From TrEMBL:
Protein name (database record): Crossover junction endodeoxyribonuclease RuvC
Residues engaged in binding Mg(2+) 1: D7, D139
Catalytic reactions on record: Endonucleolytic cleavage at a junction such as a reciprocal single-stranded crossover between two homologous DNA duplexes (Holliday junction)
Native source species: Zwartia hollandica
Function: The RuvA-RuvB-RuvC complex processes Holliday junction (HJ) DNA during genetic recombination and DNA repair. Endonuclease that resolves HJ intermediates. Cleaves cruciform DNA by making single-stranded nicks across the HJ at symmetrical positions within the homologous arms, yielding a 5'-phosphate and a 3'-hydroxyl group; requires a central core of homology in the junction. The consensus cleavage sequence is 5'-(A/T)TT(C/G)-3'. Cleavage occurs on the 3'-side of the TT dinucleotide at the point of strand exchange.
PROSITE patterns per record: RUVC
Cofactor note (record): Binds 2 Mg(2+) ion per subunit.
Keyword Repressor: no
Length: 183
C-alpha cells in the first residue's frame, strides 16, 4: 500500500509518501509546497490544489492521510487553515483517493508514543522509522508522520471493522434461526 500524508497549511503544505508492506515502512518522497504570500487567497489555494494534484499523479498513492484541524486561539487563522485543508481535500478527492483523517494527538502518539510530543521528537522518530539519512524538514516530517500513523492504524481499523461485521452477521443469523424455531 502506498500512502500520501498531507500536513496542510496556507503558507507551507507538507507532503510525504511511504510504501507499506506488512510492518515494513519505506520512504518514497516528501517535500513542502511553499505558497506565495503576495497573491490573493484564491490563488494561494489554487497553488495547494494544483501541486497536490501533481504529487498524486507523480507518486500514485493508494490512499491519503490528512491531519484534522482544530480551533486554536485565533479564529481567523483557524478559518484560513481550514481553507488550505479544503483545497488539499479537493485535490485528493479529485484524484479519487480515499482520505483518512487523524488528529495531531493521534499522529504524535502513533509515531512518537506521546500525544504531546515536540516537533523535534516527531522529526527524529520519522527519521528513525523510515531509516532516512537526515532529519526531514518540519512540514515534510509532519506529513510523513501522518502517513505513518495511517500505516499503523489502518490494519487495526480493518480488523475491527471485520469483527464488527461478523458480529452483526452472526447476530442476524441467530435471530433468524430462533425465529424459525419459534415459528
Amino acid at each position: 500500500m502506498r500512502i500520501l500524508g498531507v500536513d496542510p497549511g496556507l503558507r507551507r503544505t507538507g507532503f510525504g509518501v511511504i510504501d507499506v508492506q506488512g510492518a515494513k515502512l519505506s520512504y518514497v518522497a516528501s517535500g513542502t509546497i511553499v505558497v506565495p504570500t503576495d497573491v490573493t487567497l484564491p490563488l494561494r489555494l489554487k497553488v495547494i490544489l494544483d501541486n497536490l494534484r501533481q504529487i498524486v499523479e507523480d507518486t500514485k498513492p493508494d490512499v491519503a492521510a490528512l491531519e484534522i484541524v482544530f480551533m486554536n486561539t485565533n479564529p481567523a487563522s483557524t478559518l484560513l487553515l481550514g481553507q488550505a485543508r479544503g483545497a488539499a481535500l479537493c485535490a485528493l478527492a479529485d484524484r479519487d483517493l480515499a482520505v483518512h483523517e487523524y488528529t495531531a494527538l493521534q499522529i504524535k502518539k502513533s509515531v512518537v508514543g506521546a500525544g504531546r510530543a515536540a516537533k523535534e521528537q516527531v522529526q527524529m522518530m520519522v527519521q528513525r522509522l523510515l531509516r532516512l539519512d537526515g532529519i526531514p524538514a518540519p512540514d515534510s516530517a509532519d506529513a510523513l508522520a501522518c502517513a505513518i500513523c495511517h500505516a499503523h492504524i489502518a490494519p487495526l481499523t480493518e480488523k475491527l471493522s471485520q469483527m464488527n461485521y461478523q458480529t452483526r452477521t452472526s447476530r442476524g443469523r441467530s435471530r433468524v434461526r430462533a425465529g424459525r424455531l419459534l415459528g
